[in-house]
Amino acid sequence: MCTRHKMHIAFAFDSNYLIPAYALLASIFKHNPETSFAFHAILQGIDEQEQEQLRSYIHTHNESILHCYSLDKSLLSAFPTMNHWNVAPYLKIFFPLLLKGKVDKLLFLDVDMLVVNSLSCLYNQDLGEYPVGVVKDNYVSQNAFWSLHLREDYFNSGMMLINVELWNKLKISEQAIAFARENPGKIYYVDQDALNVAVAGRHLLLPEKYNLLQSYIPQDASRQFYNEFLKEQVVLHFTLQKPWQYLCKHPYRHLYRHYLKMSPKKAAPVITDFSISKLPAYLRIRLIEWYLNTPLLIKFWKAIKQP
What we know:
Layout (H helix, E strand, L loop, with lengths): L6 E8 L3 H14 L5 E8 L3 H12 L5 E5 L25 H4 L6 E5 L3 E3 L4 H4 L8 E5 L18 E9 H6 L2 H11 L7 H10 L4 E2 L17 H8 L4 E3 L16 H7 L18 H14 L2 H11 L2
Parallel strand pairs: 1-2, 1-4, 2-3, 6-8
Antiparallel strand pairs: 4-7, 5-9, 6-7
Helix pairs in contact: 1-9, 6-7
């Protein structure tokens, strides 16, 4: 078993998410200064030079290491895709198979996440007899396509704390792969649907702070509220809107810029979809935020609205 590094973290992404991956890594390093990591990555479309730069950056943090894995394209060709999702989300399903007999516990994180507190409490969770610890997805039930999405224990697969041995003993990866390939008409949230079917309720539900979906965050609150709220969170997940989008309304979008600037990719553009045509909508969004952050203005507005 691997014992040299305290935490094993896995992520998978293609070239579209290389820059967000650096922001995620910077946030992990910032809030876990004493921890050494072993990162496990399945990368698509990332050339050798970029991989070496990524490996070098990771090594600067307490001599952490990066293991890269490749999959035969034929393994992914039969997976169903839809809307803006390609096959990349399915990559996470393969990690327990790749790390069988090498790692006891594995923390998988999507790269559209940021870590805002120490990961130790999450990583050291006792999973007991469960193969995986996850957070309930409270958004999917409001946007359900079939009965699976209405289950009270339907989870978000962006953060998974995995007991690798038990996961493999239950053949969860194999079942998820088979379901996705054999039931393309039932796949709406790509890997997440397949994993919920395969896990079949055999998961430990963890507090939402370990995978804070946008749908868990109170909307239209003040900056003071959000600052206090953030102190209790551990992992932010940009599920509905991405912080590199010009019209993003996420209350913590600024943290993406904050952590990206700590990384070797600090010169990379923060916003990737700017256009002049979006400027009116952008100003409207920011005006509303300014209003919500100005208590005297809110008080005045409510006063003049009273009959």
